[in-house]
Design goal:
Largest sheet: none
Oligomer: single chain
Number of helices: 21
Number of strands: 0
Radius of gyration: 24 Å
Order of helices and strands: HHHHHHHHHHHHHHHHHHHHH
Helix content: over 70%
Strand content: under 5%
Structural class: mainly alpha
């Protein structure tokens, strides 16, 4: 993990003790101070000012939307605010502004370029921008109330555990928790500490170790046979999930120690039997953002409603599906832009998922007829396992473009997998113990996900079903595993780059 995450964990461990000792009425003020300090430490002066500036923009936009009754004026303010927020985001994502700023500061102030880059790029920009957009839209829709206290609005926007990688929270999810705290909830603290350690273990023991194998293969992909490339892609999918979910375990665990419950971001996505189900379980908060702020507005827009009315005269199937397909296109174009906007992102994170969903919808009705005709039982275990494997295999094609440096490299890897029939398997420069730790780690995580899929309440078990001695023993085991088997190297979380 990088220094930002160590700062997050250490700051949390120190501050949550103080947090629970001070009067309840001023706890949110303490959280605000800690969040501002954390923002400054990880973003630098420029990132600090930029973040507070866009938070102020969202506050002003929501203020004028809330205080005016004229609908046209409110719509104009909404559009202006959302455009400004996304313009600021895309300036950093799709232009060389960071390059020019880095050059300016390094040349004129004699600061090393790598230091300037860390100062210039605002940390968490992709995540808190969506949080602010959702808030402004919700105020317009009257889904949530306008927060008149600017400092409380700052806390909601930059609450430090969620700053680095989300989750993308809604105002209604946290407003009561930030400002209506009760007595100390020791159950929350107990589970929060376990979840922090569990997240660290997943990251430094399993995900970072898988990363060594994956990076070894794809840094020299031209020299590896098909089977090694397939292994690399399959492992990268697991690495991506373990890495991202580990970050969420740390974030949600830290937040629990403060008595605040943030929304879950993953729900066993590799148990999905369809693409629709997968994206309801993977990075949940961003896909609910896509649904509520892109998919539904598109499908309910006047032009789409008119199109549906027109198509209904021709064919009910077209009227039911074409508007949905158009909404899919808008959703996945935004997803591709959010993931980088380059060709490989637009292909792997936009075009392929969109094709998968459209194709799934097209064949769904035909499959229902076939299943009914041949009395095929869809709930049996073999069917579910086959579907899970099929979904994972097709997702691997998306991940190839995720890990490739550019779209050309992604297509080359696919071409080599299918054109080269050398199925020997080897990976250079990997320690023997890693080939034991990786499968054991994956197996343990798989068992935990199976328990979750079976609706077994692990949180309740950790809090209420084991004694204090057993709880302390579990903590000791987690700490020993992290210490003995963790790769303590500055390896950042994959999704922190967005």
């Amino acid at each position: 993990m990088t220094s930002a995450w160590y700062i997050l964990i250490l700051l949390s461990l120190v501050s949550f003790v103080v947090y629970h000792l001070i009067p309840i009425k001023i706890r949110w003020v303490f959280l605000l101070i800690v969040s501002l300090l954390f923002l400054y430490f990880v973003s630098g002066f420029f990132g600090f000012l930029y973040t507070l500036s866009v938070v102020f923009v969202s506050y002003i936009g929501a203020y004028y939307i809330d205080k005016n009754d004229e609908e046209k004026f409110k719509v104009k303010i909404l559009i202006l605010t959302v455009v400004v927020l996304f313009f600021c985001l895309f300036i950093f994502k799709f232009t060389d502004i960071s390059f020019y700023l880095t050059y300016f500061f390094s040349k004129n102030f004699n600061i090393k370029e790598n230091i300037v880059k860390n100062i210039i790029i605002p940390v968490g920009i992709s995540y808190y921008t969506l949080i602010l957009v959702a808030y402004v839209v919700d105020v317009y829709r009257k889904v949530t109330v306008f927060e008149s206290n600017f400092f409380k609005h700052i806390l909601f926007s930059i609450y430090f555990p969620q700053l680095l990688m989300g989750p993308i929270v809604r105002h209604n999810d946290t407003k009561e928790q930030f400002f209506s705290q009760g007595q100390i909830n020791f159950s929350y603290i107990k589970f929060g500490i376990i979840r922090i350690l569990w997240g660290i273990l997943k990251k430094v023991v399993v995900a970072d170790r898988i990363a060594i194998v994956v990076n070894t293969i794809f840094e020299n992909y031209t020299s590896y046979p098909s089977l090694s490339l397939i292994l690399g892609v399959v492992l990268f999918g697991l690495q991506l999930y373990i890495d991202f979910s580990a970050a969420m375990d740390i974030v949600l665990g830290v937040s629990r120690c403060f008595g605040i419950k943030l929304p879950e971001n993953f729900r066993n996505p590799f148990f999905s039997i369809s693409f629709h189900q997968h994206w309801q379980r993977w990075h949940i908060t961003i896909f609910t953002f896509y649904r509520d702020y892109i998919f539904y507005p598109v499908i309910r827009s006047e032009i789409i409603v008119r199109l549906k009315f027109y198509l209904n005269k021709k064919s009910k199937w077209l009227a039911n599906h074409i508007p949905v397909f158009i909404a899919y296109i808008f959703v996945w174009i935004f997803a591709g832009l959010w993931h980088g906007g380059n060709l490989k992102a637009m292909f792997g994170n936009c075009l392929l998922p969109c094709i998968y969903l459209i194709f799934t919808d097209i064949i769904h009705d035909y499959l229902k007829i076939i299943y009914k005709k041949y009395k095929f039982v869809q709930n049996n275990l073999i069917y579910r396992i086959t579907q899970m494997i099929g979904v994972y295999i097709l997702l691997c094609f998306c991940w190839i473009f995720f890990i490739a440096h550019d779209i050309k490299e992604g297509f080359y890897i696919i071409f080599k997998i299918f054109s080269s029939f050398d199925f020997s398997l080897y990976v250079d420069s990997i320690y023997v113990k890693d080939f034991y730790i990786i499968p054991i780690g994956i197996l343990v995580l798989f068992i935990v996900d199976v328990l979750k899929e079976k609706k077994i309440d692990i949180e309740n078990f950790c809090i209420n079903k084991i004694s204090l001695i057993s709880y302390l023993f579990v903590l000791l085991i987690l700490i020993l595993l992290i210490t003995c088997f963790g790769l303590h190297i500055p390896n950042n979380f994959i999704y922190s780059s967005f």
